[in-house]
Amino acid sequence: IRKYDDMVGRADLLRPKPSLKEHYKTREIDLSKLLYPAWQLTDAQQPSGGPQSLAQSVPPGMCCRMAQDHELDKVIDREIVRLSVRSLQKQAKTVLHMPVRNVDRTVGGILSYEVTRRYGAQGMPPGTIVVRFRGSAGQSFGAWLAPGITFDLQGDANDYTGKGLSGGHVVVRPPKDSPFFNESHGNIIVGNACLYGATDGRAFFAGVAAERFAVRNSGAIAVVEGVGDHGCEYMTRGLVVILGEIGQNFAAGMSGGIAYLLDIDKDNVNDQMVYLEPVTSLEDKRTLENLVNEHYDRTRSERAKLIINNWKEYSQRFTKVFPKDYKRVLREAIADHVRTGSKVAGAILNDWESIAYQLNMRAINRKMAVPFRALLNEQTQQRYRQWLNKNLKNDSTFQEIAGVASGNSMLRMIKDDTSTAAMTGKEEVLVPRAQSTLKSGKSAEFDEREEELFQMAFRAQYMMWRKGHHRGTLQLMGSNVLDNKVASRLFKTATKEMLKRRISQEKQELERRLNDAMIPSAASAVPRAKTRPEEEIPEPQNGQGAMVEKAPVDGAREQLVSNFTAEDFVDSTPLTFNNEGMSMEKARQALDMEDLVSRPKSVAFPDKKKGFHKYEKEAHPYREPKVRVLDWEEITVPTNSRSRLYDQLLRTQAARCMDCGTPTCHYPNPQGGGCPLGNRIPTWNALTYEGNWKQALERLLDTNNFPEFTGRICPAPCEESCVLGINEKSVAIKSIEVAIIDYAFSKGWIKPRPPKVRTYKQVAIIGSGPAGLAAAQQLNRAGHSVTVFERSDRVGGLLMYGIPNMKLDKTKIVQRRVDLLQAEGITFHTSVEIGKDKTLEELREEFDAVLLATGATASREFKINGWELEGIHQAMDFLHMSQKSLLDSDMQDSDYIDAQDKHVIVIGGGDTAVDCLGTAIRMGAASVLQFSRREEAPKNRPDNNPWPQWGEFFRVDYGHAECHVMQGRDPREYCVKGVEFVPHDRDPTRVGGIKAIRMHWQKDPKTGRARMEAMPGTEKVYKADIVLLAMGFLGPEATTWSGTTVNVDKRTSNIDAAMGDFRTNVPGVFACGDCRRGATLVVWAIAEGRDAAHKIDEYLMGDSVLPRAFPESANPKLFPPTVSNPNPAMGMPSFRGGTHTGSGW
């Protein structure tokens, strides 16, 4: 057996466990007939008639010989479609009566297809096709039922009833002549997993549903009279009413929607993610009453009849199950929408309200517009009637109003005209009224200015409720809109000429009040949050930098939320905003409850199930900037991997990994998130939590040859795409990764692993960067003899000389790995430049295969006036020389570009520029600035950059923090373009400064692309003794293959070799890493090196046992073509593990 494929069908190699023969229940079991070897199935003697099929040639009894006819042309759906032709063609109403049997499965699937094919997802009007069944339905009855279809079954149904319900209605009730008709709540009427994955529609079951009712329900409204275990599991949206008992583990993983339970047994509820609230608000009660009445209308349930007849008593016995995160999101959306008019927040509220709208507007046809006036209470309507004019335009519909981003998505929460709350001050449910209830036969019209005024009135009154000036309703979305005082003040204007001025005044008043106290805080004795000066730049907490956070506003207190009501938010110390207005996102950062309520970062016995909610993220910390700038040691705090407290910290951080169903951290996405190596992150997180360090190491090394490199210099795109990162700080994946490998080295588990057998195939690798080293190790493990050529005097490529020692220690980390590779049998030749000391053709003659892994080291020039002056250097030359001097003589030989007491300007962004900042600061530069043509990145992830993409927000890397500490300011200058290098006053051959001009980005009306335009009058000369160009890389240096026939992409200058194949046009020559792909991340380099090794092994041996990188190598079409970014600092991750830090050149 050489490959996994060789094992397929080899049942002859299977042996039963000896223990099976020892147990009395299994000793007589013989599975030999089932485990018949597949390769023997065609050994039967062929008849003289000629070749036969496999089934015919197999010995009798070994497989099915009869062709199966599923009789799809006879399914009941075909008959329903035939009888519903008029409805499908003209939307005419059809009512059918049909029997149904247990063998009739997925009834409604074909019918729904026909509806959707004609009318799309909106389907047909409700009740267009009504099918009344009688009997016992099979599995998936009513699956994917489309809007406009109603299935009414007298009988019972099997598992998956209403699966994927998409807008239709499903009713299951016992026959009237059944003996248990009056006791339906005590009998199971539908099977397991009903309404699985439903997205819309209604379901009414006059009986008990079995296990996993409404699992993953995403929008359906359902009433049932009891459920089994795991009810509403992973529910994300919709509404469920249960009029009976529930099984165990109810609401496990429920993150959205609402459930109402009658006579709840709290022991059966999994309350990790939900609140259990009494039903006290009138709106909740009316919602329940409407649904129970509808349930009775459709099923004639005796249970529902009893509840309706004794509603006052039973309404007190309901409990509301409200997901905690859903409630928090709605609360924040309300504040955000009222404060800023955010369309995103408005969409969240519109989605929430749409369910309540369906409940309370059941009698209104879907296609019927709800007039604006139908949303107002009677008193407000009278005010508006003063402004009516017969010649005004048509009514503004509710749909049009909902599209205006000014707080009006909550307009349907205005009181019903039956309420007397405006007179008495009592709370009342907010229910929109149907058009049919309007007294006037002609529609009442309002112009846009009046609507705008009303919307401002709503926002103002809603803000007052948030402050606690009015109790509001106990419902989360409650409001006390347009009381007498506000209405009389706003609507006393009689002429439209005065209306514009009134609107302007009200806008100013509203803005003042919103700025004065929009975000309330609960009055409590919790100590105030620790503050710090606003201008302070926080220290990044991991290798990828950290966001700059604004200090909490003084006076802000902790918000305590469990089951909040209006009176909980009486603001005793209002939060003030500056003149420009503080954004809601900043306010939430300043007052985020989970930030103020301190959560532990390390506990003795962490809880894996609730870890993501209980514990705070703690990445590997950095040393204090004031201390670390005094040496060249690594910037991270040294840790003792043998310490029990350190082990406890890591186990706690690993417990934050959620075991999410579809983890997005361990595979890459085209927008930069996810791990290109396919690291099995959830697996080794779980093993770390369990304390199985050796197994965690094995899983880590399965996909990553050098985790000690990636754990230090990789920007952690895996954390950017972590599912927890959607609304929390992501799991500290990078810190756990480096902790595993460091612990393994400390325990002596990492040892040389030379191959036991050699193939005597010779492979040459040009370049000893991460791609070359990864390929070398993989090919060596396959038994090939590998020789690596490096033009520098030390092995490691940019790992050795391109990355400063404070990020990656050369002696302790890089050289340690090189020594291990040498011990495994890999040969290294340093100070040998292919193309000069040895030609590529000579290597082809000497070796069986050659791999080009030279990297992309051709730096971009900046040829403006004065570019030839001394003191202008490429950033990589500056870093290379300083690192070499540090390793050779501890900076004593002076063979480097010394920045001591000099003014340094770095042009460009990305990690290269940051490394130049950190190096110059350690040399003692007088000042350091970094020029960027980009605008300052937003403080938070923008809307066009959603998770799980690489986050394009403001970051503070280690070099920025160090410059800030030493210079008192952030070194970055944004939207600056150099136009001329200025000679020094005393030495005209040297650079003395750079003339730059401010730029601004403007959209090109023709192309739609953003372009930079200079701002006249903003020119300025910046003093500079040294200018470092960190503007990215153009591609690989062609000297290695110059004079050969190796094809190069003319547009990118990269070697032309397809992803996943890595072959060049020259036989036996392969290319991988940055020289093929363009400058990118260290994880991509390692992934390409591993993948190229697989292809070389396959080329040499015919097939390969080496693993491939996951998943781009196997599925290159899933990703866009690789293009070398002509300007890597403009946002594309650089080779050495970083991206722009808000300052691309």
How is this structure best described in words?
By secondary structure, this protein is an alpha/beta fold. The chain is globular. The protein has a ten-stranded mixed sheet, with helices on both faces. A five-stranded parallel sheet has the order 15-14-13-16-28, sandwiched between helices. The protein is built from 34 helices and 28 strands. β22 (976-983) and β23 (991-1003) form a beta hairpin. 29% of the residues lie in helices and 13% in strands.
Rg from C-alpha positions? Answer: 35 Å
The proportion of residues forming helix, as a percent range, comes to: 25-40%
> How does the helix and strand content classify structurally?
alpha/beta
Based on Cα principal axes, name the global outline: globular
The count of DSSP E runs of length 2 or more, i.e. the number of strands, is 28
What do the pLDDT scores average to? 76
Biggest sheet layout: 10 strands, mixed
Task: Give the helix tally.
Answer: 34
Tell me what portion of residues adopts beta-strand conformation: 5-15%
Q: Report the end-to-end length measured between terminal Cα atoms.
A: 55 Å
**Model regions low in confidence, pLDDT < 50 over at least 5 residues:** 43-56, 360-496, 513-597, 1117-1145
Strand order of the largest sheet: 1-2-3-4-6-8-9-10-12-11
